[in-house]
Each structure stands twice: as C-alpha cells, then as structure tokens.
Amino acid sequence: MARRKRPQVNKIRGNASWVKGHLPWNTGKEWSEELRLKMSLSHKGMHLSPETEFKKGLKPWNYHLKNCFTEETLRKMRKPKSETHREKIRLNRLKQVFPKKDTDIEVALQEGLRKEGIPFRTHVPLMGQPDIFIEPNLCIFADGDYWHQRPEQIERDKRVNRYLIDKGYKIMRFWEWEINFLLSSMLEAIKETYEESKSSTSTSI
What we know:
205 residues; mainly alpha; Endonuclease, Chain A; 3-stranded mixed sheet; 46% helix; 7% strand; flat
C-alpha cells in the first residue's frame, strides 16, 4: 500500500496547551541564586531504588548483585545457540507487546471497528506485530507521525511490509494525523478491504 505524504498540521497533542513552534512557559525565565541553591540542595543525595531503576530501564535487574551467576550458568550463556534455539527466542519476542499500553490512535481505531461490528485482535505474534489484525489476513498499523518518519524506521516498515506480503497478508498503514482527523475515511477503507478479503477467501474455498 502506497504511503501518503504527511501534510504540515499544526495541532495540539492531547490535553496539553503546547503547540509546535511555541516556546515552553519557562523559556528565558531567570531564577535567583537563592532559588537555584535551594533547587540544587533539594536534589542532592536523591537516589532511585534498584526496583525503580530497573522499571525505568536505567539499569539491569542484577546491577547491584555480585556473582549472581554460577560458572556453569555463565558457560551455558556464552555457548553458541542452535538455530532451533534462535527460532524459539524469535517466537517468544513476537509474543511480547511493546509498548504495554495501546496508544490513543490505536484505541480510536479499535473503538471505530467495534462500532462497525468488525471483529479483530490486537498485537498478534507476527513480524512487526500489527496493531490490529482482522481475519483472515488483514494487518493494520497505526504509525505515529514522529517515529515512523525517521529513516531507520521507514526502512524497518518496508522490511515488515515485504515479509508479510510474501506470506500472503494484506497491509494497511495509517498515519497518526489521518486517524486523528480522517477517522471515518480510514474506517471505511478498512471495511472495504475486510469485505474484499472475506469474499476472496470464500471464493477460493
């Protein structure tokens, strides 16, 4: 599916009053030396607990532990993995959902599909982990305007598309701005593709 070029849209994200091009409220604000000293002293000596550092991804769970692995365990970890083991790891990673919480645009699509009466599943274990999957073979991705315009992410999306298309899946990708401003049109496109997939499957049986 050809990607549509994202137009320049000046919008407010969520409930925030910040708009692209506007300066933060504290830009150019001067703090007194007394206030700076108070702020500095209030943060000195503050440390996160090991559990919090792990949750935030700052440090691994065993960072504060010494000699937590036996020599035998270390030998097994360093041992080259077989192709069967590598495939098992790949399959397990596909089942992991990142991020844990659905984004606003994913939720908007899900609610729209429920109103249309179209059954779907989320984050199925396929390459690229489609945000929404509709039987028999429709993979839907809700792409954020910022991350999915980065060069490395564009290449990754292309690899995912090629892989899934080769496996017989249909791909639909929607930009964040499309879902936010043209949701009804996006749902109509999904509905049409869904009906085509159903009819082609019933014909082939």
